[in-house]
């Protein structure tokens, strides 16, 4: 990921991030064989998926509902994301 201009988090070695030109970020969270990509930019998410798919065999299970035992709930109207 470093060679693709992503930085590894100083706090968690499983988290990579890349600052976009508009000041927002793309986040890639990796843990063994699970992955979560987060960004305001759908096009940047798709670029990252394509990049990773070219290097690794991947399956896309759609929008995340759970990762690492945490449930994920989105309230798009309020612009909020909840983890439990």
Output the structural class: alpha+beta
Fraction of helical residues: 10-25%
Strand content: 35-45%
Strand order of the largest sheet: 1-2-3-4
Helix and strand run: EEEEHEEE
Low-confidence stretches: none
Explain what this protein looks like in three dimensions:
A hairpin with a 5-residue loop joins strand 2 (15-19) and strand 3. This protein is globular. The model has no long low-confidence stretch (mean pLDDT 91). It has one domain (2-83). The protein is α+β, with helices and mostly antiparallel strands and 84 residues long. Helices cover 17% and strands 38% of the residues. The strands form 2 sheets. It has a 4-stranded antiparallel beta sheet with strand order 1-2-3-4, with helices on one face. The protein is built from 1 helix and 7 strands, in the order ββββαβββ.
Topology:
Elements lengths: L6 E2 L6 E5 L5 E7 L2 E6 L2 H14 L10 E2 L2 E6 L4 E4 L1
Antiparallel strand pairs: 1-2, 2-3, 3-4, 5-6, 6-7
Which short descriptors sum up this protein?
84 residues; alpha+beta; 4-stranded antiparallel sheet; 7 strands; 17% helix
Concise synopsis of the structure shown:
It contains 1 helix and 7 strands. It is an alpha+beta fold.
């Amino acid at each position: 990921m470093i060679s693709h201009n992503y930085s590894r988090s100083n706090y968690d070695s499983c988290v990579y991030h890349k600052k976009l030109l508009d000041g927002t970020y793309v986040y890639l969270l990796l843990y063994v064989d699970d992955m979560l990509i987060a960004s305001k930019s759908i096009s940047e998410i798709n670029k990252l998926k394509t990049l990773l798919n070219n290097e690794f065999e991947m399956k896309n299970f759609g929008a995340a509902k759970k990762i690492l035992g945490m449930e994920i709930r989105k309230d798009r109207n309020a612009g909020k994301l909840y983890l439990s």
